[in-house]
Structure formats: C-alpha cells, structure tokens
Automatic annotation (TrEMBL):
Superkingdom as given in the UniProt entry: Bacteria
Start and end residues of each Glycosyltransferase 2-like domain: 13-141
Protein name: Glycosyltransferase
Protein species of origin: Brachybacterium kimchii
Signal sequence, renumbered to the chain: none
Pfam family, one: Glycos_transf_2
C-alpha cells in the first residue's frame, strides 16, 4: 500500500465523505489539477466502504488518492476529519468538505504566507459557489500583511478551521473537532487556534470555494436548542478561553450571540416550537454567554439588543421573540445601524465599523487583481 503522504509534498488535504452521491470527485480534482505540486489527497470514507467512495472519484485520479475508512455512530464529519488529520506525515494538514473545491494555487498561497510569517494556522479566503463570489469574513483590518489578532481582526466570525494547519501545532495544543457534534463541532477548535497560535489570513490568495449543491448538510437541520447550541460549553468553559484577555473573550461572545444564538431564533419561525422548556434553554444559554464574556452585548445594535432581551426573558411572548429576530435583519434602518449604547457607535464590533470592514474585505481582492 502506498504511504499516506508523499515525502516531497508538505500538505495533506483531508476530505471527509459519507456518501458517493456527494461531488467528492470534483473536490479531489480541484486538488490534483490545481494544487498537486504541494498537496496529497486523503479521502476518509465515513461509515461507507472505501470502494464506494473511490468509485465517485474520476478514474484518472484514483491511484493518486489515499482512501481511509472511518466508522462511528455519528453523522457529524468531525470523526472522519479527526481520523484523517491523525494520519500521515506531511508537516501541514488541511480539511475540506466533499462538496467544496480549492481554486488553483490556493495551497501554494497558504505555504508562501506561512513561510514568510511563521504562522501555524493560515486562514484561507472563502468564496460561495464560484471563486468570484467572495465571503466577507473575517472582516479583518485593511492593508495588513502580518499576523492577525482575534479581536482586532474579528477572526471569531470564521467558524471552521479551513486553511493550513501545522501538524506539530495540532499535536502540541491537542486541538481537535468535537466528535458527535451535529452542529458547531468545528467552532471551538478554530476559535482556539485563532486565539492562541500565530495566525494569518490569506486575504488575496485563491479561495476555498464552498459548494452550494449539497442538499444534506446536517448544519441546516433544525434541532433542539440545547443540541443546536451544544458546542457552547466546550468553548466557554475551556481553560484556554478563560485565560484569554477580556477583549478577546468579549469579541467571541459578541459573535456567539450575533451568529449562533440569534440565528437559532431566526430559523425557528413557528410559535409552536417555543415551548417553556425551549425558552428556558435559550435564556440559560444566552445568560451564560454574557457571564463568560462580560460586555459582549455592548456593541450590538438596538435591534440586536431587543432580540437579546427577548432571549433572556422567557416571559416575553414567542411572537415578539420571532418578530425581533426578523427585524434585526431589516438592514439599513437606524435600529440596525446604531448600538443601544451610543458610546459604542465606533466600537470595532458595532455595526458601522463592522459593515465597513466587511465591505473592504470583499472588495480588496478585486482591487488587487485590477
């Protein structure tokens, strides 16, 4: 059997796949046809025979791919990703969804940044559907070429460890995906890395392209609230989180509220869902974020704070809770632009600066190409 890693290639790209119906062949091709000089391909067949997954890969690519089998009781991709990352000897590793692709030259761009800066984690630029449709997160500081800072560069809004990771760093830190987590199994890991190891954002490099043609992503399923936000304790109660400076904890808390808590409410637009038990769970989880990350609510818009008030108070009616979740997405109104505390209007996480930075991140690669 061939060795898992080619000794002359510095990166293992690990692709997890649980069904041959996923476009895993396209994912493999994006590595072997545009990034093969620097990357090995490791495909992990999750609860399926390796031959089934291998059959979905183009015939001309099959002998250039290593297939591993991983079996567990979960639908989560965390298990197969962890299994793939544990194997191999290449000094760097990256993970990749089976319905995603890498633009040509992406791995070379990561390696060049790593060599220049000594970063142990290189965050890739993201695009949605096509390479030209950039995703404006993280909303980093403009025109910076050095290492990034979690709070100052709003890194917490990146929720998956996509990009280049040092295998030695993973062994040293013990960072890993939470196995069995149906939602958010990658959030704790990526946040830990961005907060605690030298990290850089590849703002101008070829992107990692998120596929839009998979209809069975488990992330999109509505689940019980304590399961939907079940990754919060592993993050908020971790020793590494408690040891962070207050600005970093506050930045992470703001993101948890803005993206995960408020998103969980927005996608539950049925009053029948909001039983007393669900409302109590939402209130407890929201209050725990405020306790672990004091002040994280201060930069939020007035509309966001109205929703947060409803999350914290189970006595507020479900109709008002759901309306607040809809209203915070009606962008451009004063309630969505201005924080409740006017002294926070120029805060890094407040809407004016956050929106401006997001726009700049989206536009800068186009300016660079021009």
């Amino acid at each position: 059997m061939r060795p898992l890693s080619s000794p002359d290639k510095p990166v293992d790209v690990v692709i997890a796949c649980h069904t041959p119906e996923r476009p895993v062949g396209r994912a493999v091709a994006s590595i072997l046809e545009g990034n093969a000089e620097h990357a090995n391909v490791v495909v992990v067949a999750h609860n399926r025979p390796a031959d089934e997954i291998l059959g979905a890969i183009r015939p001309e690519h099959r002998d250039r791919v290593r297939i591993l089998e991983h079996r567990d009781e979960f639908r989560s991709a965390s298990g197969p990703f962890n299994a793939g990352m544990r194997e191999g000897t290449a000094p760097f590793v990256a993970i990749m969804g089976s319905d995603d692709t890498l633009a040509p030259g992406a791995v070379a761009s990561w390696l060049a940044l790593q060599e220049r800066t000594g970063a142990e984690f290189v965050i890739t630029r993201l695009a949605l559907g096509t390479a030209g449709h950039g995703v404006p997160t993280p909303a980093t500081r403009m025109l910076r070429g050095g290492l990034a800072d979690l709070a100052r560069d709003r890194l917490a809004y990146r929720s998956a460890p996509l990009g280049l990771m040092s295998r030695a760093m993973l062994a040293r830190t013990g960072a890993h995906l939470v196995e069995g987590a149906t939602v958010g199994g990658d959030v704790g890991m990526v946040t830990q890395l961005m907060a605690t190891v030298p990290t850089i954002y590849d703002r101008f490099g070829p992107p990692y392209v998120i596929g839009e043609d998979a209809g069975d992503r488990v992330t999109y399923v509505i689940r019980p609230m304590r399961e939907q936000l079940g990754f919060f304790p592993d993050l908020l109660e971790a020793d590494w989180f408690a040891s962070l400076p207050r600005p970093a904890r506050r930045a992470i808390g703001t993101k948890l509220l803005r993206i995960h808590v408020f998103g969980a409410v927005f996608y539950r637009q049925d009053a029948g869902i909001w039983t007393h038990e669900v409302r109590e769970a939402l209130a407890e989880i929201s209050a725990e974020v405020l306790r672990r990350a004091p002040g994280c609510e201060r930069p939020l818009s007035r509309a966001d704070r109205r929703l947060l008030d409803a999350c914290l108070d189970p006595g507020i009616g479900a109709d008002e809770l759901m309306a607040a979740a809809r209203d915070r997405r009606r962008h451009g109104r004063p309630a969505t632009l201005l924080p409740r505390e006017i002294t926070q209007v120029l805060a890094r996480e407040a809407p004016p600066r956050f929106m401006a930075a997001s726009l700049a991140v989206q536009m800068l690669p186009r300016v660079r190409r021009g």
